[in-house]
Write a structure and sequence with these properties.
Elements: H1 13-27, H2 32-37, H3 41-57, H4 63-77, H5 80-92, H6 114-127, H7 135-169
């Protein structure tokens, strides 16, 4: 359990219980960050609406490119919950989750294509403190994905940084959504 306990369904209110049931139906279990967010009911609903809206609006990039960048951001900020959940989402989308074990080798691994390498590198640069994004990197991403794709990728990585840093700060760790892949600290980074 994290630093803040989840709000149990019995205390979530009628609409909260409905949201919990829908999440359980979709994901097989109630995502703990959702239940922790229920302590602030207005932000709970704002977060759910924002996540739903972002999911529906994210249609420019190929799913594999967006998902691998989000996954990389989760590993870079040290959010084992996000890695666990993200692995499950990729598996459910039919993406190759075995290659996630080799993400640190993305620059040279044949498991990743050029578009994915660009996205992973951008996730690394955006997730670094301080950020290390360059003008050349942004220009190359815009050439590859178009301006809308660049914005979608940037927003995806930024949202994952927010999710991951929030979950990490609240002590939320992997929940067992996908035991196939566990967070390993990035090379040279203490956990």
């Amino acid at each position: 359990m994290g630093r803040v306990p989840p709000v149990p369904a019995s205390e979530a209110g009628v609409l909260g219980r409905l949201a919990y049931r829908l999440a359980e139906r979709r994901f097989g279990a109630m995502p703990e960050p959702f239940a922790v967010a229920r302590h602030h009911r207005k932000l709970f609903w704002a977060g759910l609406l924002a996540e739903f809206g972002f999911e529906k609006a994210s249609t420019t990039l190929p799913r594999n490119v967006r998902e691998i960048a989000v996954y990389r951001a989760a590993t870079q900020v040290g959010c084992s919950w996000c890695v666990d959940f993200g692995t499950m989402l990729q598996r459910l989308e039919g993406l190759d989750v075995e290659r996630l074990r080799h993400i640190d080798d993305y620059r040279t691994s044949p498991r990743y294509d050029d578009a994915e390498r660009l996205a992973i590198g951008y996730a690394d640069a955006m997730s670094a403190t301080p950020m290390t994004v360059t003008d050349e990197q942004v220009a190359e991403l815009e050439r590859r994905f178009g301006r809308a794709g660049l914005i979608e990728l940037t927003t995806s990585i930024a949202l994952e940084n927010m999710r991951g840093r929030s979950n990490h700060a609240l002590g939320l760790t992997d929940q067992g959504f996908d035991a196939a892949c566990r967070l390993r600290p990035a090379a040279g980074r203490a956990r």
